[in-house]
Structure formats: C-alpha cells, structure tokens
UniProtKB/TrEMBL annotation:
It is a single-pass type I membrane protein. Coiled coil: none annotated. GO terms for biological process: homophilic cell adhesion via plasma membrane adhesion molecules. The lineage of its organism: Eukaryota, Metazoa, Chordata, Craniata, Vertebrata. GO terms for cellular component: plasma membrane. The keyword Isomerase does not apply. This is Cadherin domain-containing protein. Potential calcium-dependent cell-adhesion protein. Pfam families: Cadherin (PF00028), Cadherin_2 (PF08266), Protocadherin (PF08374). It comes from Prolemur simus. The chain crosses the membrane at residues 21-41, 833-854.
Length: 1037
C-alpha cells in the first residue's frame, strides 16, 4: 500500500500538491472517503508547520498542546500526559519534541532543503513529515506533522562554465538576438535567478532577458551596432547573474564573442515539443526518440550539432544519451520510476551560429511491479534489545508501535494488503492511508504467555504479487501489586535556625505488604524537596544538610517517597512540613545606606523633612526597631517608631546649604543588634534675591559707539548677578525704555547689546537705554533696571561734554513706552493707547488748573520779591515750614529772560494683560521732577542717604534733577516681614518724588536738601510697564 504525502487529505489542508517524488495511492473516491472516516475515528490528526532551512538548534517551531487545543480529561490518568516522537530506529529526526509540554524545537540535524528535496522541481514545495503520539492510552492520539521547508538564499547562481564562447555573424542586423547559456541556482522562488547584467558591453552589445514557458529566465545578447570582422573579430566581456534573495548573491562569467562569416539560416526542429513514455525496465541502449532538425544553408553552415541545454538536470544527463550528429536520444543507464517518474530534456540544435533551435522532450517513465512492499516499524514503547516489554496489567488499546507500509510502485502495483499471520491479543488499527497502530486487543497474562512474536505480512496487488514480512517481539513482565504504606499520613516538625549541618530531624518509616525484593523499601525525597534536606535511603532518617535561615524561608513543604524494589517499583508518598524557628541573627537594614532629603528654605519649624525606612528580617521582638539620631543634635528630631525627621530650626540656604548627621536603628532582641545610616538634608533655594547690576557700574557711565560699526556688532554687554541658585538665578535681559530710534537690541540671555542697523548722520549723539534684568524664579520673578548710555561718535574729544550730555539726557523725559512683557494683541494695545491718552489729557488739565490756583495764591509774594530785586538763585528748603522757596533772577545782572523751570512728570503705568503670567493690577504713578540745568553741579550727591544694599548698582545718578532737591526714601505701606515678598524695593537714589513733595516734607539734618522723615508708598513694578513723560508749563516770576 502506497500513500503520497500530497494525497487528497493533505491537499485539502494545503491547497496545492508537491512535485516531490511521493506517489498517489490508487483507488476510488469511495475508498478515500471511507479511509478518511477510519482515520478520524482512530484519533489521528494532521498538523502543518513551516520552518526555514538552515535553522539553528533549539528554535521553537510550534506547541502541539495549544495548536491541537488539547485539554486533560476529567478523570485521572494512569500517567501524566506526554508527547512522544515516533521515528524509525537509526533515523536522525530534524526536530525534537518536549515530552511534557508538546513544544517542538529544531534538533541538531542540519536542515538543507537542496539535499532533503533534491528530486523536487524548481517550482515545487519541499516537505518533511514525522508522527507524534500523545500518551497515555486513555487520551491517545496520533498526530502527523508536516513541515514545509522554506528556502533561504544560501546558494549563488552559477553559469555552466566560467568562459562562454558565442559566434555572431558579421552581417548580424542591429537588435539581432543570440541566446546565452542560462545560469542555474539551486534555490527557488525569489532566491533563484532573477537578473543578468552585461559588463563592459562597449556599446556594441546589449543584454535582454526572456522568460520561457517553464518560467526559466534566459539571457539574450543583442547586437546594437554593425559588426565588421575585418576591423575586429573578437569581443571579450563579462556577464553577471544575480538572484533576488537577501543578502543578494551573484556570479560572473567571461563572455567571448567571435565575429564569424555570414550564416544566413538557422536550424529548425520539425517538432519543438515531444512527449514520450517508456517503461522503467527498458534496457540500456533503448531508443527514446529521434529528433529531426533542418538548415536551409549548404556546406558547413548546414551541419547541425545536437546537445543538451545546461538547464537539463544532472540525473537526466546521467540516464539519457544524445547523439550530437543524428539527434537520437537513447537510455544510457537503467531507469527507475521510483527515483524520478519524468524527465525534461531541453535539446538545442546549432549550425555553428549563435541562434540554436530549441526542442523540449518530456520523458514519462511508466511503472512495473519491481518493488516489494516495505514495513517500517516505529516503536511507541521503546524496545529493549529489539523486544518491547509490556506490563501484564497494561490496559486495553495500549499502543505498542506505529507501522508504515509502503510500496514504491504505482497503481495496482502499489496497492498493499497488511495483516498478521495468526491470532494474538494485538490488533492493527489504521490511522492514515498507509499507517497502522499496533495495540493490545485483550488483557495480558504473564502466567499464561510470557512473550509474543507477532509476524506482520504485506502483499501488493501486482501480477505476480510481491510479499514482505517482519516480526515484532513483545515480552510480558510480571507486576508488583502492593505499594509501600507510611506509618504517618502527615509529618510535622520544628527546627531552630542556624542549626549545624547534618543534624538529624526525624525518622521516616513505611511498610510493604509484598515479599522478597518487592517488599524492600527505599526512601527518597521527591523533586519538590529543597536541597537543605536529605533522607537516608535505607534507614529513612531525615537530616538538614545545610544551615537553615528563617529569613530566607520559614516553612518548607516537600514530599518524601517510599519505593519498593519491584519491577516496575511502586511508590508511596507523605507530606513533610518543617517550621524554622527565629533567632536574632539579623541587624536592622536601612532601605538606603545614605539618605538625601531636599527641603525648601522656607520650610517651617517642626515641619516634615522626610521619612527613614528600616526593616529587620527577624521576627517578633527581634524585628522591633527603634530609631535615634547619633551624637547630640538639637537641630533635628526623629520619631523612634515612624522614622519621621522634623527640624527644630529655620532654614536659610544663603547661610547653610546642607546638614549631615547619622541615624541609628536598634532592634529589640535579647542581645540587640544595630546599624546606622547617613542623612543629608539639602536646603533648596527660593527666589528671595533680586538681580544686581555689575556692568554698567553707574547710570552716568557711557560707552563709545563708532558710526562705522556694522549692524550686528556687540557694542556693550550688560552684566547682572543674582544671589539665588538654579532658575531663581537665571536672568533674562530686555530693553524696556529709551532706545527711541530702535537702533539697538539686546540678547536676553547674554546681555549683549548689538547694533540693529547702520548708523546715519541723524543717529550721532547720545542714546539712552533702560535695561531690565529679570530672573526666572517661581512662582514670582524679581527684577531690577539700569540705564545704559551709548555715545555714537567718531571719537571722544571732550569727556566733560559727554558727561554734560549724559546729565542732560537724564533731564530729558522718557518718551518711549516701556514694555517688559510679551506684546499684547492689537486690540489690547489700542485700548491701552486710548486709556493713556484720556488719562494724560485729564492729568494735564488738572495740573494746569492746580498751577493756576497756586499762582493766584502766591502772586503777592512774587510781586514783592520782584520789587526788592533780590539776587535770583535757588532757595534752600526751610526746615521749619517744610516749603521750597521759589527762585528769582536778578534783573540788573541779567538782561535776557529768566530760564524756565521745567516740571516733568514721569508716569509709570502697569497694565494687566490677558497673559496668565501677568497677574498684577493696573497701577499708575505720576512723579514730577524739577530740572534746572545750571544748578546741577551745585548739588552734592554724595551726601544723599540710602537704605539700599551696599552692593546694589547706583541707579540714582540717572534720575538727578537739574535743581538741588532733597532725596526721599520710599517706604512700603505695610511692613515687609516675609522674605518671599514680590515688592520691588527702589534705592533712595533711584526714587521718583511727587510734585508736591517739597512742600510736604522737611529735613531736620544739617543738609537742607535731605529729608529723612518723608515716606511714600512703594510702587510694585510688574510686567508689562509703560513709562510716559509729560511736561507742565513752567512759569517765571
């Protein structure tokens, strides 16, 4: 009986059959249906997998348990489920299977598709089959596993020779084509031959590829230019062939083209495709077919040479002979249909030209009954010296072996009948079309029959029929009927830890009702027993071979076994429970050797700094841990039980950045154990320091900028520092005022002031820039401002003049809006401008009205002073009445009109924008400044009192008035008792004073221009800030 691996049953799973030389079993459709029913009822299954060739060892391919949806039955099994690979004795399987899990892995055998399926055509599939038995017999099923071997690109395409010679007539037309020998690649599909390239074709020849009906790719040489044999008769090039695999493989051959005399006609076969059949027992020399080809030329050009194409397989070339002159094909070696049932012979006929004729001869080898059936026994129960040993109480249907019966012949010659020669308690159960299971059909009895020799017979249906027989030996083994019994159903004991290795714990004992060797008991521990315990095999004394550690494991559960010496031995088990008692052998363990806590410097006293966690692996009082701080440390406390650390001090990062001490943990054991850990508390900075400008050092300093300076050149660098750290000390610079011509820009990170555009004549002179430095502190940032004077000129010829210009620049009101935040939307800007215009208009009207009223009240005094013709000069403030006296001019000494007294107002306006970062309220502060040019030099600015920090920049010089006026210290409305406030404290010299400050403040010091008792609310500067100046009418008397 013969079954092809590509039978109808397997084709139903795969959808296409293989071209491998495995052959179909003849029979009717009804027989196939009945056979399928038998296979289904026998518990046989098929499973298909795919694996690549050359896979390494131990690669997981599949899981039969999951893939077959197996599940354990409700009833208990006589033995655990296992998977057994069934294969022929002496065979090296390509895969292995885990008996317990059913996982399929590659074995150490090499998987070479080209060797495994050498007889398969190039477009065929390569399969490998094995059988797996699922045991025990209660759930037995047989699974045929078919592996599709996928090809990998492990072979390079090769030409038949390294040098290819071809002849081309010199009168060959342009675009004439001439066939080249094709390359052969043992790989298939995309890994086979895919492309050809012509190297160094010299623009005379090209290369094209055509695909034959069989799917082969054939290279053709194309003539691209006219040839002249007298000019050049030989061309040497290279042909490269490539496959499509990854990585791609290729090879080259030398192509030598000879230009020959004209050969006008090419050979032509009378039949281009011939199919013949010949029996496999045809003798050597038998004629297969006669090929006929003609050539219209005469003489040497008409002589035809026949030869096989290099695409013909090596097997076909070995079996068949082609007469190169006559074209007769004969048998060269004996045929074997079982080796190869058909052959494709591609014959070429050439007259010496470059275009040989092609003819395909398909030879079908017919079958004769020349093969006897084969019986392949694959044992499910492993034999001992060729004999299977079965227990006398083996259950019914115990599977002994899988027997495969095959016949290499075809049709009736391959149909096999399989049976046993006499009555035995075993039967053959068909599982697949050509496979049978040998299983027990009745209970065995050792006392009646101790062994069986089962003769298996197979005969085919050929005429005459051929027979084959094989003998299978089975030996029945006597049973051990009674298992040992333990005297205790459960063993429990307690052992203190840190015991001496080898100390005895208890004695385990069991009895056996059998006699002789079947009653001899051996004690052992099951596989679940830990390595800390050991039992004496003969006496049953249980000992602890290692020191026990309760902290690693407190309880042990394991199984002790008692087995007799019967064959097979019977085993009983008992559960052993060991409890390990604690001793104080572990010190407290901190979760970290060193703790680092980070607290803000504004953390209140007795707040929570952090938590120290400590564990003790011991149990009970041995694990009760108490915490304390080593050495005397009044700065911090720790809770002895919870480990919470609290400070007894207030933190100030600027004074001390970190604190370090050690914490001790002590357990409550009878002999206590302790350990220590280092604790470091790092004070985290908060934003409590404003930026301080270092460069420029003074508001009256200046920097020369040459008119020829190129745009983008750094003309000045502003430098500020912040005593905070991190983001609180990271500064951003911006120009918030001045820069009326928008001639300069500043880098917000570096403070570099660069020239924005080329200077023109109108840009010569002094430029004033109000620069703001703002830190990135959270939640509120702090800032400071400074004035930068840039003098655009070719040189500094008169420093006194420049300082005079700087002084006058200070007197000039700021006319440009100061923006310290991101630009708002156009709608918001328009509303701001309108509000500012209305507010400015109302303010001007009020100032004019107040000035008029004051002028009316003081007019008598002014007239009296004119009559007395007193010397016109600025009057000092009167300490008693706290009023500033008006200055008069001497009419006799000065003929020109008196100088105007300029009363300037600087408006600092803060507008709340829609931006979430600008959360301040809108505040407007109008501050008048009286400026007089001539009296500036008389004022002693060095006597001005200040309460600002000594290391702060001097901003006061930029706000000097032209007239000698007192300086005022602005105090906040409420005490600043928190160092985390966001109020901007202005230095005394940087304070704007109100227009009526002269009349409301007095000085008790000797300096008539100093007023120490006058205080004003401090205005909070927040972004965005706009500074507007407006000038009131100044009148002279």
């Amino acid at each position: 009986m013969k079954v092809d691996f590509n039978s109808d049953i397997s084709s139903f799973r795969w959808g296409e059959t293989s071209n491998r030389n495995w052959y179909l079993l003849s029979g009717t459709y009804i027989f196939a249906v009945l056979l399928a029913c038998v296979v289904f009822q026998s518990g046989a299954q098929e499973k298909n997998y795919t694996m690549r060739e050359e896979m390494p060892e131990n690669v997981l391919i599949g899981d039969l348990w999951k893939d077959l949806n197996l599940s354990l039955p409700d009833k208990s099994l006589t033995s655990p489920m296992k998977f057994k690979l069934v294969y022929k004795t002496g065979e090296v399987p390509l895969i292995r299977i885990e008996e317990d899990t059913g996982e399929i892995f590659t074995s150490g055998a090499r998987i070479d598709r080209e060797t495994l399926c050498a007889g398969i055509l190039m477009d065929g599939h390569c399969f490998y089959e094995v059988e797996v038995a699922v045991l025990p017999d209660e759930i037995f099923r047989l699974v045929k596993i078919r592996f599709l071997i996928e090809d990998i690109n492990d072979n390079a395409p090769l030409f038949p020779t390294t040098v290819i010679n071809i002849s081309v007539p010199e009168n060959a037309a342009i675009n004439a084509r001439y066939a080249l020998p094709a390359a052969v690649d043992p790989d298939v599909g995309i890994n086979g031959v895919q492309n050809y390239h012509l190297i160094k074709g010299q623009n005379i020849f090209g290369l094209d590829i055509i695909e034959t009906p069989e799917g082969d790719k054939m290279p053709q040489l194309i003539v691209q230019k006219e040839l002249d044999r007298e000019e050049k008769d030989t061309y040497v090039m290279k042909v490269k062939v490539e496959d499509g695999g990854f990585p791609q493989r290729s090879s080259t051959a030398i192509l030598q083209v000879s230009v020959a005399d004209t050969n006008d006609n090419h050979p032509v076969f009378q039949e281009e495709e011939i199919e013949v059949s010949i029996p496999e027992n045809a003798p050597v020399g038998t004629s297969v077919t006669q090929l006929h080809a003609t050539d219209a030329d005469i003489g040497e050009n008409a002589k035809i040479h026949f030869y096989f194409s290099n695409l013909v397989s090596n097997i076909a070339k070995r079996l068949f002979h082609l007469n190169t002159t006559t074209g007769l094909i004969t048998i060269k070696e004996p045929l074997d249909r079982e080796e190869s049932p058909n052959h494709k012979l591609l014959v070429l006929a050439s007259d010496g030209g470059s275009k040989p004729a092609r003819a395909m001869v398909l030879v079908n080898v017919t079958d004769i009954n020349d093969n006897v059936p084969s019986i392949d026994i694959r044992y499910i129960i492993n034999p001992i010296n060729g004999t299977v040993v079965l227990s006398e109480n083996a259950p019914l249907n115990t599977k002994v072996a899988l027997i495969t019966v095959t016949d290499k012949d075809a049709d009736h010659n391959g149909r096999v009948t399989f049976f046993t020669d006499h009555e035995v308690p075993f039967r053959l159960r068909p599982v697949f079309s050509n496979q049978f299971l040998l299983e027990t059909a009745a209970y065995l009895d050792y006392e009646s029959t101790k062994e069986y020799a089962i003769k298996l017979l197979a005969t085919d249906a050929g005429k005459p029929p051929l027979n084959q027989s094989s003998t299978l030996f089975i030996k029945v083994k006597d049973e051990n009927d009674n298992a040992p019994v333990f005297t205790q159903s459960f063993i429990s004991l307690s052992v203190p830890e840190n015991n001496f290795p080898g100390s005895q714990l208890t004695k385990i004992s069991a009895t056996d009702a059998d006699t002789g060797r079947n009653a001899e008991i051996n004690y052992l521990l099951d596989t679940d027993a830990p390595p800390e315990f050991k039992v004496d095999r003969r006496t049953g004394i249980l000992t602890a071979v290692k020191k026990l550690d309760r902290e690693k494991q407190e309880k042990y559960y394991f199984t002790a076994l008692a087995t007799d010496n019967g064959v097979p031995p019977l085993i009983s088990n008992v559960t052993v429970f060991v409890t390990v008692l604690d001793q104080n052998d572990n010190s407290p363990i901190f979760t970290h050797n060193e703790y680092n806590f980070y607290v803000p410097e504004n953390l209140p006293r007795h707040g929570t700094v952090g938590l120290i966690t400590v564990t003790d692996l011991d149990y009970g009082e041995n694990s009760a841990v108490t915490l304390s701080i080593l050495d005397v440390n009044d700065d911090f406390t720790i809770d002895p039980q919870t480990g919470v650390i609290r400070p007894n001090i207030s933190f100030d990062r600027e004074k001390q950045e970190s604190y370090t001490f050690y914490v001790k943990a002590e357990d409550g054991g009878r002999v206590s154990r302790s350990s220590t850990a280092r604790v470091t508390i790092n004070v985290v900075d908060v934003n409590d320091n404003k930026p301080v400008f270092v460069v420029p050092p003074s508001n009256y300093s200046y920097e020369l900028v040459l008119p020829s300076t190129n745009p983008g050149t750094v003309v000045f660098k502003v430098v500020a520092v912040d005593n905070d750290t991190g983001m609180n000390a990271e500064l951003r610079y911006s120009i918030v005022g001045g820069n009326t011509k928008d001639l300069f820009i500043i880098d917000q990170t570096t403070g570099n002031i660069t020239l924005k555009e080329k200077c023109v004549v109108s840009d010569l002179g002094l430029h004033r820039l109000i620069v703001k430095a703002k830190d990135l502190g959270q939640p509120d940032s702090l800032f400071n401002v400074v004035i930068v004077n840039l003098f655009v000129n070719e040189s500094v010829t008169n420093a006194t003049l420049i300082y005079e210009l700087v002084r006058k620049s200070i007197e000039t009101p700021v006319t440009q809006n100061i923006e310290t935040a991101d630009a708002s939307s156009p709608t918001n800007d328009y509303v701001k401008i309108m509000v500012a215009i209305v507010a400015g208009t109302i303010t001007v009207i009020l100032v004019i009205f107040i000035a008029a009223v004051l002028r009316c009240r003081h007019s008598p005094h002014l007239k009296a002073s004119q009559k007395n013709k007193q010397n016109s000069e600025w009057a000092t403030p009167n300490p008693e009445n706290r009023q500033m006296m008006m200055m008069k001019k001497k009419k006799k000494k000065k003929k020109h009109a008196p100088k105007n007294l300029l009363l300037n107002f600087v408006t600092i306006e803060e507008t709340k924008t829609d931006d979430a970062e600008n959360d301040g309220n809108s505040v407007t502060l109008d501050l008048p400044i009286e400026l007089e040019e001539q009296t500036m030099g008389r004022y002693n600015w060095g006597t001005t009192p200040t309460t600002f920090k000594p290391d702060s920049p001097d901003l006061a010089r930029h706000y000097k008035s032209a007239s000698p006026q007192p300086a005022f210290q602005i105090q906040p409305e409420t005490p600043l008792n928190s160092k985390h406030h966001i109020i901007q404290e202005l230095p005394l010299d940087n304070t704007f004073v109100a227009s009526d400050s002269i009349s409301k403040c007095s000085s008790s010091s000797s300096d008539p221009y100093s007023v120490s008792e006058c205080s004003y609310p401090v205005t909070t500067f927040k972004t965005p800030v706009s500074v507007h100046t407006r000038q009131t009418d100044s009148r002279t008397s």
